[in-house]
Design goal:
This protein is mainly alpha-helical and 275 residues long. The protein has helices spanning 3-23, 27-50, 57-76, 87-99, 106-130, 143-166, 181-201, 207-235, 250-254, 257-274, and strands at 170-172, 176-180. The chain folds into 2 domains: 1-24 and 135-275, no CATH class; 26-130, no CATH class. Helix 1 crosses helix 2 (27-50). The chain is globular. The termini are far apart.
Length: 275
Amino acid sequence: MSNILVRALSGGVYVALLILAVLFYSQIAFLIFGILAGIGLFEYQKLTAKLGYSNNAKIYIACGLLAYALFGYAGMNYGSILLWGTLPLVFLGIMIQALFSENKNAMLSSLVGIAGYIWILLPLLLVHFLYSANLNGKILDFWPVLGMMILTWTSDTFAYLTGRFFGKTKLFERISPKKTWEGVIGGIVFSLIASYILYLVDDQREWFFWIILGLIVPAFGVLGDLFESLIKRTAGVKDSGDLIPGHGGILDRIDAMLFTIPATFSWIFIYGLIR
C-alpha cells in the first residue's frame, strides 16, 4: 500500500471519528477528546524530556486527565463553576512532584509541564464549552465546533496544496522551511469559501460571524503549526510520535486546532456581546 493511500486512509478515519464525536455529542465525544488530551500530553512529555525538562510521566498525565475529567464535566453540564476551583490543585500536584524529583531542572520542568497543560489541555477542554456558544447555556449547538474543525482542515489542506504548486516566498524558513506566503493566502481564500458555505447551512448566525471566523481560523492555524514545528525542531525530531500512519503523532494532527479552538472561543464570546 502506497504512503499516499496510507496517509489518506488514516487521515480519513481520524477526521470521520472527530466529526461523529461532534455531531453526536455525548460521553463518547467526551472520551475521544480525553484520549486526544492524554496522548498529546504523553507526546509533549517525550519532546520536553529530550530537552532535559522531564516530569514523571504517570503523575503528569494523571493530573492532566483529572483536570480534563473535572472541567470537561462542567462544560458538558453548562455550569458547576465551583469545579474550576480545583485547577490550582492540579497544578499543585505537578509542583509538589518537583520537590521529590532528583532532576536538577525539576522546577523548570514543572513550569514546562504546566505550559503543556495550557497548550494542549486547555483547548481540548474549551471544546466542551463551545457547545454552549449561544451563551444561554441550554441549547446544544454543534455548529461552532464542527465549523471550526472544517475551517481548520480546509485552510490546512489548501495551504499545503497551494504552497506545493505555487509557493515561492518562504513564510518562516528557520522554523518551517516548506511553508510559504502563497500557501497561507491559499488557505485563507479556501477557508473563506468554506465559511460562506457554513453560513448557508447554519440558520443561527449571520454571515459576518462565519466570514470573520473564516479569517481567524487560518491565521491562528498557521501559528499553531509553527509553534509545534518550533518545539520539534528544538527537540531535534521530525514528528511528535508515530501513532497515525503517514501523519506522525497526535500533536502533528491537532497542532493547528490547539490554536484555532481558543481563537474560536474568543470570537464566539465577542460575537455574543455585539450581536
